[in-house]
Amino acid sequence: MKYTRVLLKLSGEALMGKSEYGINPEVLSAYAEEIKNTVESNKIQIGIVIGGGNIFRGLSGVNKGFDRVKGDSMGMLATTINSIAIQSALENIGIKAKVLTSIRMEPIGEYYSKQKAVDAMNDGYIVIIAGGTGNPFFTTDTASALRAIEIEADVLLKGTRVDGVYTADPEKDKNAIKFEKITFDEAYEKKLNVMDMTSFTMCKENKMPIIVFDMNKKGNFNDLISGKEIGTLVHN
After folding, report:
1. Where are the beta strands (DSSP E) in 11-133?
2. What is the dihedral of CA 25, 26, 31, 35, to 10 degrees?
3. Which contiguous run of DSSP H or E holds residue 146?
C-alpha cells in the first residue's frame, strides 16, 4: 500500500549511534538523507515525533532523585533538542522542516495545533512535533499515537533498530520469530512490547495501524513508503 501522509516515530536512543549519550552526527545525517530520499521519490507528507532518551529519560530520572513531573518536563525538553537537530539536518540538505512544540517556547518552535501541522505539510514542510504531549506521565510513544490520529495520518511508522515485532527480543533470543502481520488483540495477548499500553490502546480504538521497521537500514523507509512490505504491521 502507498501512503500519502505518515507519522514517523523515531527513537531518541537511536540518535546516539555507538556513543553513550547525546547526538551522533553520522546517525543524524543518515536519518536526514533517508527522509530526503523518501520525500523526493514519493509524494508524501511526513510528521515526525522523536524521543529524548539519548539526553534524558524522565522515568530513569525518578530513580536518581528527580520528582516524576520535573523528570518528565526535562524529558520533553530533551525531545525538543532532538527535534531541532533533525530540523537543522534536513534544512542543511535542502528540505523544508518546521518544529512545532506542545509547550509554548517561541521562537524555538511554533505552538502546536493540528491545523498548523496540516497547513505546514500541505505547504511542503516536514513537520517535527516536539515536547511529547505537553503533559507528564505520557511517553513519546503516546505522543506519536496522539499526533498520528490528530493529523489523520494513514499509518504510524515506528522506526527502530530491529526489523519488526518478534516473539521475543531478537537481540537476545536467536530463536525469536518475526511476525509479518499481527492484530492489536494478538499482540496484547502475547504480551509483545510494541508500544506502551496507552499509545497501543489509542491506536487500536482509532484504527490507526502501526508498522514497526528498521530505520537504520539504508533505503528501508523509502521502500516502505513505496509500498513494499517491510517490518511488521499491527492492525485491527
Report:
1. 45-50, 97-101, 110-111, 126-130
2. 100
3. helix 140-150
Indicate the residue type of 45.
Answer: Q
Instruction: Return the pLDDT at 87.
Output: 98
Which 3 state secondary structure label does DSSP give 101? strand
Closest CA to 56 of 17, 12, 25, 86: 12
Say how many domains are in the chain.
1
pLDDT at 58: 59
164: phi then psi, degrees, rounded to nearest 5: 150, -165
Read off the C-alpha cell for 182. Answer: 499481527
Distance CA 26, CA 32 (A): 10
pLDDT in tens, 17-61: 888 889 999 999 999 999 999 999 998 999 999 999 999 865 665
The segments of the chain whose pLDDT lies below 50 read: none
Q: In degrees rounded to 5, what are phi and psi of residue 37?
A: -60, -40
**Residue 184: its pLDDT value, please?**
95
Domain with 205 in it: what CATH number? Answer: 3.40.1160.10
Sheet holding 5-10, edge to edge: 110-111, 97-101, 126-130, 45-50, 5-10, 155-160, 210-214, 232-235, 181-183
Q: Give CA–CA dist 225/143, Å, rounded.
A: 22
Q: What is the pLDDT of residue 169?
A: 85
C-alpha cell at 120: 505546514
Dihedral sign, CA of 62, 48, 148, 191? negative
Name the pTM for this structure: 0.94
Question: What pLDDT is attached to residue 60?
Answer: 62
Range of the domain at 87: 5-235
